[in-house]
Write a structure and sequence with these properties.
It is a single chain. The protein is an alpha+beta fold. It has a domain of 109 residues.
Length: 158
């Protein structure tokens, strides 16, 4: 059964709140951004960036998926492994609300979605690096959910 208009509006509100918190600074959004889309019963969070050999074309790479299971009244959260298949997110596979879905993705306990593994207040760093464990910055680095994906690296806020 399709989602109701009320449920869709609730999803839009939660997704936009998440994006307002997580989107990169405006000046780099043409190089790296995140977005969301709704397909049937599933919400997808994706990273968008220019194609390496055609800067005017953009490529979307899914990072997270949440599917509403109406029979259970729960959302199931998935992440994409290196096999490019969706797998249930073990720390919090099921949650009751769409707001909880985005909270789990934001917390990202196992660094499966956004590439960070700590639960501290963060801010974007401007320095470049090849490793997320260095001081942070924007880096091209392998990631468990998408090989050679352009991910955001963060540094702790002091």
């Amino acid at each position: 059964m399709a989602l109701s208009e009320f449920e869709i509006k609730k999803i839009e509100k939660a997704a936009n709140a998440f994006l307002n918190k997580r989107r990169p600074p405006v000046h780099i959004r043409n190089e790296l951004d995140i977005g969301w889309r709704l397909e049937k019963q599933s919400v997808y969070i994706y990273e968008t960036r220019p194609v390496w050999n055609s800067p005017n074309e953009y490529h979307d790479l899914d990072m997270a998926k949440a599917t509403f299971i109406r029979a259970q009244g729960k959302w199931k959260i998935f992440w994409m492994r290196q096999d490019l298949k969706w797998h249930g997110y073990e720390p919090n596979m099921y949650v009751k609300t769409i707001e909880q879905v985005f909270a789990v993705i934001d917390h990202d306990e196992y660094a499966c979605f956004l590439g960070k593994s700590h639960n501290k207040k963060i801010k974007f760093a401007r320095c470049a690096g090849w490793d997320a464990n260095t001081r942070g910055g924007f880096a091209i680095m392998p990631h468990v959910s998408a090989p050679l994906s352009l991910k955001l690296c963060f540094k702790e806020e002091i």
